[in-house]
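idk why but the lab printer keeps eating my pages so im just putting this in chat instead. protein + zinc ion:
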Amino acid sequence: MDELFKTLTSNMHFNATELSGKTWNQNWKVPEGLISIIGLKNGKRPVFYYGLTKNYEEDYELKKGVSDNNNKFINARLYFKFNRADIIEKEKYVVANGFNGLLLCINIDKEKFINTFEKMLLDGYKNGDEHIIDVLERMKERNMFNSVEESARYIANRDYNWLIGRLKYKAGLFNYSGQGYWLLPLKTKMEITKGFEVNNKELIVDLENTELFKNYLIYVDIKNNVIRYNKNRLCKSGFSFVDEVRKQMHDDICPWCGGKLRLVKTKRGEFLGCSNYPGCLYRRFLKK
Ligand SMILES: [Zn+2]
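predcted complex ->
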């Protein structure tokens, strides 16, 4: 949260205040923070006040399955789980104080995602999990890797890039890293914003459900240190901060890291590999 506030306050359009039981010495169930978005253009636009909470638990799951042609597979998936009772308490505060709403903030941390899943896969392998052993061994064979460690790192990277690529696409933020803070409005037109998964106890952000990311309000790209507003939500009409320029996707550029792809010839076969190998394991096999 400190990092988020530091980045927000470095931008002239934001006024970020940390408002919490800790800093105000109160027992209220207040959001962790309060932000106001002031004067989107020349100070002439309306001011928005939002409560902000980042009080969630991360749930890392290896989803195991078997494909139609009988191959075992594993998907690495991450969920952010907000406690529903806690959210309701915070929303009461937000309504009572006339804020525009409550923003739920999640932090997408690439290193953590990849390291966590890599470790989970290798732990499973060492502990004799047959499904994991089968998938890592077959991946090693098929992708011409030297070790199951490479297979595990490949799966973690593959699934991270797949998830983040889809949600960046949905949010219209293809030129950004996808890492950093996503501020998602709890409610839209009095109803829970489309894309949250809700049960009795929790409000869940499932990265696989990209609908929610179309509805983001603010995105803070920690890697490139830029803030993006969702013009469709904050601006009625007339202007936007959005540079609509789309970087062309180049065929010879690695989609995972931006490095150059080169043709690799081995005794086992040919493929396009990333020039940042072994730092990056991306490889594309040419159709025969
Ligand atoms: Zn690469």
